[in-house]
Write a sequence for this structure.
C-alpha cells in the first residue's frame, strides 16, 4: 500500500525581501558615481559682429582696471569693490548706455575679474543697471584701441 | 471564568515597503543623474548671480597651473596644448551648432592672461554665449539691528 505524502504547502506571497537588497545596491552605485557638480554661472554674451566692433571713445567710457595684486582702479582712482556701483550711479543716470570696460592685468587672478563682473551685474538689485559691460581681450586692445 | 488565550505574534519584519522607498530613491537618482564631462579640480570663483548652465554645453576648464581641457559636452574632457587648440576646438563645435553655449570652468587663482586667451579664442570662433562657472557666494549676515 502506498502512503500518500502530505502535500507541501505553497506560499501565496511574492518574496520581496531581496528586492530591497538589489534596490539598495543600485542606490549605492548611483550615490558613489554621481557628483554634485556646479552647474551654474555668470552668463556672458559675446558680440556677434567680431570683425567690426563699435569704436568706443575712451573718454566716454568708465574704465575699471584690475591690477596684478587684485587692486581695483576706476578711472585712475583706486576703489574698493563695494564702491564701484556708487561711483557709477550718477554717470549711468546721465547716460544709461554708458560703456563700462573691465580691463584686468594679465597677471591678475581670474577670480578678481569675476568679482567685478558680478558686482556690476548685481547692480540691478540696487536699481543701478549697468547695461553696457565689455571685457576686451588683449588682442582686441592691441588691434582696436588707440 | 474567562480564559485568556495568548495570541501568537509573528516574528517577521515587514520589508515590502522598503523596496518601494528604495525604488523611489533610485528614480530620484536616475532623474537627477548627470554625467560630469569635466573632472578637473578647480576652485571656482564665488558669485551672487548664478544662472543655470544649459545641458550639453561645451566645456573648457583651466586649472590654476594653466592646464586646459575641452569637451563638446557629449564626452569626457581631454587636455589640449594651449589656446590655439581651444580655437580649433571651438570652431569645430560652432560649425556643428552655432548656438552652442560654452562653459568656462576656470580656477579663481588662474592668471587672467590664460583666461583672456581662451575667451579670445571663443570670440574668434564666433561663440555666442559663455557661462563663467561659479559657486554660490556666501551671504554675510550683518550683526546688529536697526
Amino acid at each position: 500500500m502506498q502512503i500518500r505524502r502530505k502535500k507541501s504547502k505553497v506560499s501565496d506571497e511574492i518574496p520581496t525581501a531581496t528586492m530591497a537588497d538589489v534596490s539598495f545596491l543600485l542606490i549605492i552605485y548611483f550615490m558613489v558615481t554621481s557628483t554634485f557638480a556646479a552647474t551654474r554661472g555668470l552668463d556672458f554674451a559675446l558680440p556677434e559682429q567680431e570683425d567690426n566692433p563699435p569704436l568706443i571713445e575712451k573718454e566716454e567710457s568708465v574704465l575699471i582696471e584690475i591690477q596684478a595684486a587684485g587692486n581695483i582702479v576706476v578711472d585712475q582712482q583706486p576703489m574698493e569693490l563695494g564702491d564701484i556701483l556708487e561711483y557709477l550711479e550718477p554717470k549711468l543716470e546721465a547716460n544709461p548706455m554708458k560703456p563700462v570696460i573691465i580691463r584686468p592685468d594679465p597677471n591678475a587672478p581670474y577670480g578678481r575679474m569675476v568679482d567685478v563682473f558680478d558686482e556690476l551685474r548685481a547692480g540691478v538689485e540696487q536699481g543701478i543697471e549697468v547695461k553696457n559691460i565689455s571685457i576686451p581681450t588683449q588682442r582686441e586692445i592691441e588691434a582696436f584701441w588707440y | 471564568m474567562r480564559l485568556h488565550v495568548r495570541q501568537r505574534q509573528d516574528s517577521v519584519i515587514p520589508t515590502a515597503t522598503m523596496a518601494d522607498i528604495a525604488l523611489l530613491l533610485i528614480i530620484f537618482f536616475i532623474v537627477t543623474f548627470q554625467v560630469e564631462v569635466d573632472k578637473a579640480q578647480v576652485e571656482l570663483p564665488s558669485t551672487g548671480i548664478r544662472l543655470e548652465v544649459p545641458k550639453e554645453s561645451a566645456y573648457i576648464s583651466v586649472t590654476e597651473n594653466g592646464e586646459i581641457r575641452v569637451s563638446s559636452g557629449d564626452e569626457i574632457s581631454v587636455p589640449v596644448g594651449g589656446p590655439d587648440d581651444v580655437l580649433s576646438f571651438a570652431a569645430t563645435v560652432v560649425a556643428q551648432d552655432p548656438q552652442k553655449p560654452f562653459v568656462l570652468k576656470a580656477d579663481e587663482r588662474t592668471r587672467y592672461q590664460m583666461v583672456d586667451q581662451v575667451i579670445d579664442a571663443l570670440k574668434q570662433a564666433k561663440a555666442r554665449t559663455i557661462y563663467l562657472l561659479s559657486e554660490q557666494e556666501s551671504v554675510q549676515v550683518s550683526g546688529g539691528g536697526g
